[in-house]
Amino acid sequence: MPHTLDPELRRALAERVRYCHEMGIYDFYRRESTTLHEIPSANQPELREEMSPKKIAVTPAIAGNNLAAIAPYPEHGAADTASALKLIREDLGDCTRCKLHQQGRKQIVFGVGNPRAELMFVGEGPGADEDAQGEPFVGRAGQLLNNMIKAMGLRREDVYIANIVKCRPPGNRQPERDECETCSPFLMRQIAAIKPKAIVALGATAAKNLLAINAPMTELRGRWYDFKPAAGDPSWPGSRLAVTYHPAFLLRDPRQKGEAWKDLQMVMKHLGIEPPKKPAEEAR
Ligand code: URA
Fold first, then answer.
1. In whole angstroms, how far apart are CA 273 and each of 194, 243, 264, 266?
2. Which atom of ligand 1 is closest in space to residue 109's alpha carbon?
């Protein structure tokens, strides 16, 4: 396999990879020596065996030439994280990639906070207040999230806050799978740019989408997950991800605030934040 690509092939490949990125496809695999007429049907054990994660191989032509070098994201090579986030926002544009753009959204809610945050919160999707103001977590749930952040001894400006989907689902319904899949590559790029030490998934929708695990909250909470988006810098070891209750759920069932506080204490320990003497009453 040659290690340099013919310029025309390289250009065509770059175009194809960019198109795949737009569609939310980031990882490329190739079976080592399979030609088209050899591909067995999907239910043959041989194929299942080949497709197991341990056996898949990155296409040597792409690996040898560095995929990121062939079709880099616009933010690669940005001078700093703030500029990287700006480039991701520009790439998102006036997004029409999923049906949410036709379902009454007023604006895209990209994310807010410190581009160099050590801690990032990820919610589900904008509600009416967020849609009106263009900022995540500014309604009642946002007030509670602010209190939770304060109870940790941090300020809202210290952390970064985003959602799985950036447009308001109509009637505050849960975002649908295709909407999450279309939108989350941009969130992954935000995470890859910020490189937070810890991420807190707020609620089951955020947790399930980030971790690709379908489990109840009781099973998802109370432990750490290693988390690194595919778009992440190879020299960055990745984040640790914790799951806690969504503030909107805590507003409905305040008895669970104590459990959420335990989750946040676990995060504080990881970040080396001293527990404040008297945590804000509202967050407990
Ligand atoms: N709920 C969310 O999940 N995200 C917001 O931004 C606001 C409410």
1. 19, 18, 11, 10
2. 6
pTM of the model: 0.79
Distance 204 CA to ligand 1 centre (A): 13
User: Is the CB of residue 136 less than 8 Å from the CB of residue 108?
Assistant: no
Are the beta carbons of 81 and 193 closer than 8 angstroms?
yes
Task: Report which DSSP code applies to 275.
Answer: P
Distance CA 109, CA 168 (A): 8
At CA 205, angle to CA 200 and CA 211, rounded to 5? 60
Q: How far apart are CA 51 and CA 176, in angstroms?
A: 27
Q: pLDDT tens for residues 204-218?
A: 999 999 999 999 999
Q: Are 248 and 206 in contact (CB under 8 A)?
A: no
